[in-house]
């Protein structure tokens, strides 16, 4: 399997809140990950406040576009707690301790983990959820869908959307 480390790291950055640091990295992201050019070019020409407002509209108002992978599998149930423990266990087994401000199933964190370790198990295990998110982002008409398109293109074929 080819290494998609640069793509995963770039996608992780694209799926986090678009602050000034993100904007400063746009030229590097454009060159490093051609698969993300559609989104990066959109981000480069969109005024910062508009891009930030769009991010909040897409990802922060409803779970329909949740960036938390266990939500797609478990929803808001008690099972989700065990799923979150599993994410931490996978990180720990790779010699990393999850210390982020977000939950360990936050897609940018999972992408960064895959980038650093080459371990795509968590992405593959949650492929159905990634496909649902990709489909909903596409239907919503957001440029963020192209980021999910690029990530999903690197993973084995989905077994079926739940």
Largest sheet: none
**Can you write the helix and strand succession as a string?**
HHHHHHHHHH
Look at the structure and give the mean pLDDT: 91
Number of strands: 0
Q: Describe the global form.
A: globular
Strand content: under 5%
* Number of helices in the DSSP assignment: 10
Q: pLDDT under 50 segments (min length 5)? A: none
Radius of gyration: 15 Å
Structural category is mainly alpha
Fraction of residues in helix = 55-70%
Separation of termini? 26 Å
Pfam families: Nitrate_red_del
InterPro entries: DMSO/NO3_reduct_chaperone, NO3_reductase_chaperone_NarJ, TorD-like_sf
Protein name: Nitrate reductase molybdenum cofactor assembly chaperone
Keywords: Nitrate assimilation
Brief overview:
With 162 residues, this protein is mostly helical. It has helices at residues 5-14, 20-32, 37-45, 48-59, 69-74, 79-93, 107-117, 121-125, 127-140, 144-152.
Question: How would you explain this protein's 3D organization?
Answer:
This protein is 64% helix and 0% strand. By secondary structure, it is mostly helical. It contains 10 helices and no strands. It has helices at residues 5-14, 20-32, 37-45, 48-59, 69-74, 79-93, 107-117, 121-125, 127-140, 144-152.
